[in-house]
From TrEMBL:
Pfam families to which the protein is assigned, alphabetical: Aldose_epim (PF01263)
InterPro entries: Aldose_1/G6P_1-epimerase, Gal_mutarotase_sf_dom, GH-type_carb-bd
Protein name listed in UniProt: Aldose 1-epimerase
Organism: Cohnella hashimotonis
Length: 335
C-alpha cells in the first residue's frame, strides 16, 4: 500500500487539511473527515466538471463555510434562542448565530469524524465515517444524550449515494432532525450561460418566516412553486425560502446545464419532508437545495410532528435517511 492509500481511497490535501478521495470510472469525490465529514468535491470525470461549490482559498471557506460542499446538519438550521423542551427536560444550546439569537446548524458539521472503513471494487467506491457525541464534552453539555452518526458515502455508477444511520446510545428518547446544506455550482459548467440553465425543486407550500428567518407556523401558497416544480432559470432570482416537500412528485431537485451537457438529480428519500432553497442574490454562482427531515425550529413549533417533521428516537433505537446525487448526460433534444 502506498503512503497515500487508505483502504481503497487516497489521501489528498484540501485547503491544507487531509481529505479522502474516492472514485470510480465516472465520478470522483473528496470527503474531509476533520470538517464534519463534509463532501467537499464531486467531479464528473467524463466532462471534467466540478459539481459542488468550492472555495478559492482558506479565507473564502472560513468566511462562509455553509456555502461549500455538503455540510451535515444535525439538527438543521436554526433553533430559536437555542432552547427547547422535550420529555420534561429543558435544553440549552450554544447561541452561534448572534444576529438572530439562535443556535444554527447543529453539532456535527465542524467536528472531526472518525474514518471507519474505505473500499472500492470495479463498480463502486465507498467511505464510512462516524461521529460519537461521547467524544465531545461540548456537545454532551448541550445535548445530554449519547448518539452516534454513521455516514456511508458511496459512488455507484453515475451516482453519489449518501446514507446516515443515527443511533440513540442513551436510556432516554430524544428529538432529532437531519439536513444537508448542499451547495452546487450553478451553472454547473464554468463557461456555461446562466440564462440557459434551469433549476427545479419538489416544493409545495412555503413556510412564512419572521424577521429572524424562523417559521411562524403558517404555511402559504407561493406563486413561484409551480415554476420551481417545472424548472426555471435562476439568473437574478433570489431564493432564501423554506418549503414543504410536494407529496405528489419525485422528491428531487434537478439542475440542468445544456452548455455543459449535464443534468444533476439530487434525490432525497421521503424522510426529508422539507426543502430549503438558497442562492444568495441569484448572481453568486451557486444554489443550495437543502433537504431536511424537519422544518427550521421544529423543536419549538406548536404543531404536530406530521406537520413539522420532528421525530423522537427511542432509547437504543436507530433510524436511517438516504439521498443521492445522480449525474446524467444532457442532450438538446431532451428539452
Amino acid at each position: 500500500m502506498r503512503p497515500d492509500d487508505i483502504y481503497g481511497g487516497r489521501i489528498v490535501a484540501w485547503l491544507g487539511r487531509p481529505g479522502v478521495l474516492i472514485e470510480n470510472d465516472r465520478l470522483q469525490a473528496t470527503i474531509v473527515p476533520a470538517l464534519g465529514s463534509r463532501v467537499v468535491s464531486l467531479r464528473c470525470k467524463t466532462t471534467s466538471t466540478e459539481l459542488l461549490h468550492t472555495p478559492a482559498s482558506v479565507e473564502a471557506y472560513e468566511s462562509a463555510p455553509m456555502l461549500y460542499g455538503i455540510p451535515v446538519l444535525f439538527p438543521p438550521n436554526r433553533i430559536a434562542g437555542g432552547t427547547f423542551e422535550f420529555g420534561g427536560r429543558a435544553y440549552r444550546l450554544d447561541i452561534n448565530d448572534p444576529v438572530t439569537g439562535s443556535h444554527a446548524h447543529g453539532f456535527v458539521h465542524d467536528k472531526a469524524w472518525e474514518v471507519v472503513s474505505c473500499g472500492r471494487d470495479e463498480e463502486s467506491a465507498r467511505l464510512v465515517t462516524a461521529f460519537d457525541s461521547a467524544h465531545y464534552p461540548s456537545v454532551a453539555a448541550q445535548f445530554p444524550h449519547r448518539f452516534r452518526l454513521v455516514m456511508r458515502v458511496e459512488l455507484q455508477g453515475n451516482a453519489l449515494v449518501q446514507r446516515i444511520d443515527l443511533h440513540n446510545e442513551s436510556d432516554a428518547a430524544f428529538p432529532w432532525g437531519l439536513g444537508y446544506h448542499t451547495a452546487f455550482n450553478f451553472p454547473l459548467g464554468a463557461a456555461s450561460s446562466p440564462d440557459s440553465c434551469t433549476f427545479s425543486a419538489p416544493v409545495g407550500r412555503r413556510w412564512r418566516l419572521d424577521e429572524r428567518f424562523l417559521p411562524t407556523g403558517e404555511l402559504v401558497e407561493d406563486e413561484r412553486a409551480a415554476q420551481l416544480r417545472q424548472g426555471m432559470p435562476l439568473a437574478g432570482v433570489a431564493l432564501d425560502d423554506v418549503f414543504e416537500a410536494a407529496g405528489d412528485s419525485a422528491n428531487e431537485a434537478v439542475l440542468t446545464d445544456p452548455d455543459a451537457g449535464i443534468r444533476v438529480r439530487y434525490r432525497a428519500d421521503r424522510a426529508f419532508g422539507t426543502w430549503v432553497l438558497h442562492n444568495g442574490d441569484g448572481r453568486q454562482g451557486f444554489v443550495c437545495p437543502e433537504p431536511y427531515t424537519c422544518v427550521t425550529n421544529a423543536f419549538n413549533l406548536a404543531l404536530p410532528p406530521e406537520a413539522t417533521g420532528l421525530q423522537a428516537l427511542a432509547p437504543y433505537a436507530s433510524v436511517s435517511a438516504a439521498s443521492s446525487i445522480v449525474v446524467e448526460p444532457y442532450r438538446a433534444e431532451e428539452s
